[in-house]
Amino acid sequence: MRSEALDISIVSRGQTLRVVLSGPFHNEQVNGIKEKISGLIEDGNRRLIIDMENVVIADDGVAPMFLTLANLIKGKNGDIKFIFRNEAVTKAFAPLRNMLSIYPDDLSLKTGGFFGFLKYRRRLLSRKTGVRLSRPVALILLFTLAGWFISLVFIIHLQNQRMRQQERELGELTEWKQRADSDLKNLRDRIRPLLQLGILKDTIETRSHASDRP
Q1: Strand ranges for 39-179 from DSSP E
Q2: Residue 59 to residues 33, 35, 164: CA-CA distances in angstroms?
Q3: Span 137-166, pLDDT tens digits
Q4: How far is CA 62 from the centre of its chain?
């Protein structure tokens, strides 16, 4: 049993409760924190912010516990958001990042949506590569990529239309060929008795001789 303590403080801001966690977050502390936050939800709180920026250790049971709480509060028409950008918590939450609302700081949480996402990605890129992207540059890159994507979709759409047109034309040609073959067969069936009697041959030869006369 570890002796390190996980500090927890709760601050009310209007209809939102902010839960600030600090220190090492081990698996032995998961049940206690889960009961504490579940109690807040059962008391009628529907908007929670969990600040974990000062959590220095996050064991493998921490993120799944918060996913359970997120599902619990969503079932009560509420929402829970997380704030952190430190390496320990980021690594622990990586498998569940797409299932939770995670922000790197308060500014991103307030801005939310599109600009918050850009800011967060820009900071991640800056920490990993040392390259900093300003918001205008990030917007230009995003719109450029969006333009390429739209152009690609448009080209694919045109190609699909062309393929469908070619398929229709091929179908029409195939149908015409079948009709022509059928008509030719019927014509051959009709003239076969004439050929057998020699009538068609005599007629052709008579016309040929007539054309040779001066």
Answers
A1: 47-58, 79-83, 101-103
A2: 13, 18, 56
A3: 667 878 888 888 898 888 988 888 888 888
A4: 27
Q: Which residue has the tokens 């206690």?
A: 32
User: Dihedrals φ, ψ of 83, to 5°?
Assistant: -120, 120
pTM for the full predicted model: 0.52
Q: Helix, strand or coil for residue 18?
A: strand
Tell me the pLDDT tens digit for each residue of 124-143: 555 555 555 566 766 787 88
The candidate with the shortest Cα–Cα distance to 98, out of 62, 70, 56, 127, is: 70
pLDDT score for 202: 47
Which residues of the chain register pLDDT less than 50? 1, 3, 113-115, 202-206, 208
Radius of gyration of the chain (CA): 38
In this predicted structure, what is the pLDDT of residue 74? 93
DSSP state of 26: -
| Right CATH for 7-111 from 3.40.47.10, 3.30.750.24, 3.40.50.720, 3.90.1150.10 | 3.30.750.24
Q: Are 50 and 83 in contact (CB under 8 A)?
A: yes
Burial of 92 (0-12, 13-18, 19+ CB in 10 A): buried
